[in-house]
Amino acid sequence: MSSPRTGLEIQRVARLDGDLRLPGDKSISHRALMLALLANGESRITGAGDGEDVRSTAGIVTALGAEVARTPGGGGNVDYVVRSGGADALRAPAAALDCGNSGTSMRLFAGILAGLPITTILDGDASLRRRPMARIIDPLRSMGATLEGSDGRANPPLTIAGRHPLQAIDWPTPVPSAQVKSAILLAGLRAEGKTRVREAVATRDHTERMLRERGVAVRTRIGPAGETVIEIEGGAAVQARDATVPGDPSAAAFWLVAGAIHPAAELRLRGVGVNPTRRAVIDLLRRMGAAIDEQPVEGGVASGEPLADLTVRSSALRAIEITPTDTASAIDEIPVLCLAATQARGRTVVRGAGELRHKESDRITGIVDGLRILGARIDADRDEIIIDGPTPLRGGLVASLGDHRLALTFAIAGLVAAGRTTIGRPESVAVSYPTFFADLERIRS
Ligand code: S3P
Hints:
By secondary structure, this protein is an alpha/beta fold. It has helices spanning about 25-40, 50-65, 105-115, 125-130, 135-140, 180-190, 205-215, 250-260, 280-285, 325-330, 335-340, 365-375, 405-415, 435-445, and strands at about 10, 15-20, 40-50, 65-70, 80-85, 95-100, 120-125, 145-150, 160, 165, 170, 190, 195-200, 220, 230-235, 245, 265-275, 290-300, 305-315, 315-320, 320, 345-350, 375-380, 385-390, 395-400, 420-425. Helix 3 (about 105-115) runs parallel beside helix 6 (about 180-190). The chain starts with 7 loop residues before the first strand and ends with a helix.
């Protein structure tokens, strides 16, 4: 690897072999910090991810009045001790709250701030300022909070004038989104009565699990139209709890694909979170023929989440059809699954992918343009991606669009592509996986 002015260069490697510990799960790290802020008392968080997104959340927790101590933990992760006076003791911050690149910080804090009797501004970087916020503004306004985007549009910076108590709502989410569901549930904590969220496709359920662990009644059931209904009783206090954060399955996905598509690979990933609402990428890769062995970690539950050790070996992949439900369940892993599909025999179709256009970048355009430069046969329309394989990849200059999941996907592509692959704006990997290039150095030969 080297860093010319144009970006980071990756060369094809002869072999991938080794053991890896992953960054602490990003979704769970955010939630552990936020729930520690809402609880009165001390919460210890072990093994949180140290990516820029989680740091943004920790900064906001501090700005809202909690004491946050951060110390280095194992494997590039960090441990936090958060002392807070709880939701009723939070104070209005002196300045706008900076969410950086993190959609999770912005949407979940919007839910929290909607129920506090203070006025705050949530802002972020250029990418976050382009992302849609109407999906949280609408339900939070229905609950009684006042939210305004910039220039009357539904984009950040968002000004939030909270209210306590809020009114409970019954809200069918228009797109599958754990961030929207979580924003409504966090606001529901501060509402009178029962707040319900209805999801046509069930999304990651960390918020529900973690609230239950902290003494809040959250019920999940199947509704009359087959939808998942999540119900929270307003007015409950969040109790302080210690949390251990599992390895991030979305970070593991990069190595699972690397191991499967590289001809001489064996990678062992330790302590990965395999929550049923997060593990779709493992099951999709197995359907493609990936040799992935999964050993549950004995007694291995972190933050109420099951853990497993995963081993992946070089595999002959075949194409599959990825349905809209699969896509929603593996939303962050679709870019790297597209890379896997370039090495699979047959035509892979990814359906219901439109939400990818509203992530840190337009990930459909980004993945199609980047993988084409590397020689892949890949096409897309508004909502669908089609990949024909297998195609040998060759190096080239690819743009990550400053999007961590695209930069990580192209770095993995560079490990199998002939010649040199140069990735533009590679530093974006630090948003979710700051130790990625150091990990790669350890396992390549
Ligand atoms: C996340 C939910 C997903 C995901 C994001 C993290 C979360 O976003 O893409 O990386 O922690 O709740 P959406 O809920 O908007 O799909």
